[in-house]
Amino acid sequence: MTDNIIALVDGSGYATSVCEHAAWVSRLTGAPIQLLHVMGRREAAGPQDLSGAIRLGARTALLEELATLDAQRARIANDAGRALLEDARQLTEGAGATGVTTRLEQGDLIERAVGNDAPDTRLIVIGKRGAAADFAKGHLGSNLERIVRSARKPVLVASRAFKPIRKVLVAFDGGNSALKAVQHIANSPVFKDLQIELAMAGNSGNNARDTLDEGLLRLRAAGLRADVCVLAGSAETALAERIESEGYDLLVMGAYGHSRIRSMIIGSTTTQMLIACKLPVLLFR
């Protein structure tokens, strides 16, 4: 059985891009797509017992009316979720994907999206920001980091709009995540006709440079067009400048190599690159 691509869709401006990025991978791999929309527990909640919030002597009719309103709200939320998924299905199929299914869930997004992240998931696709994106343009979506930290499969973070992908920059530091990314690229039909560059930023030492050369040989042995470059300066600045000057369409990198506490103190290259770059980012852990 072919592994699913899980595409997380919501009411944000990134939903169309998520569908189109998922369809791009599906066309090249033949993998089916499962479109997933998760409603929060409050959004999907049915009738509630509100008697404790109403003063003694309130009429029973008022409680019944409140319960009816709750039921209507839950029904509307479910209808809206199904309509959103149907629109996403038509868009995804229109972009050339086949085997598209939909799933409407309620509860915690991480539990629903990553809880089943085991052998039947190939890739998770998510937008850089969620439904409140226009109010927080300098920040990432509240669920993005949680998804990336929890997932054990690659996560493709869709940019605001999809555009054809021809050139790929791989941020390479010699670590396990970078090696995992190189192995994935070498084995995936997605990268067969793309131009790939392994980029190492800063002074990573001779061992990392040797590993960089090994990564290049592995990609070329797989028949891919690949080169390497070594950049001066910090990873965040050097990689962003390289992307801007050379016009790359996709960034591939390892995700969150440090603990949450360490990231709070010194920042995270992953977060900074996601905020700074306007292109899609494929993340590996």
Explain what the structure shows.
This protein has 285 residues and is an alpha/beta fold. It has 2 domains: 1-160, Rossmann fold; 163-251 and 258-279, HUPs (Rossmann fold). It is built from 9 helices and 10 strands. The protein has a 10-stranded mixed β-sheet, sandwiched between helices. It starts with a strand and ends with a strand. Mean pLDDT is 83; it is low at 258-267.
Main traits of this protein?
2 domains; Rossmann fold; 285 residues; 20% strand; 9 helices; alpha/beta
Radius of gyration: 22 Å
Total domains? 2
Q: H/E series, N to C? A: EHEHEHEHEEHEHEHEHHE
Number of strands: 10
> What's the CATH H-level homologous superfamily of the largest domain?
HUPs
State the strand order across the main sheet: 3-2-1-4-5-10-9-6-7-8
CATH topology heading of the largest domain: Rossmann fold
How would you characterize the largest beta sheet? Answer: 10 strands, mixed
> Outline, from the CA principal axes?
elongated
The CATH architecture of the largest domain comes to: 3-Layer(aba) Sandwich
Average pLDDT rating: 83
Helix content percent band: 40-55%
- Assembly type of the chains comes to single chain
Beta-strand fraction estimate? 15-25%
Give start-end ranges of low-pLDDT stretches. 258-267
CATH class placement of the largest domain:
Alpha Beta
Note the total helix count. 9
Helix-strand category: alpha/beta
What gap, in angstroms, lies between the N and C termini?
24 Å
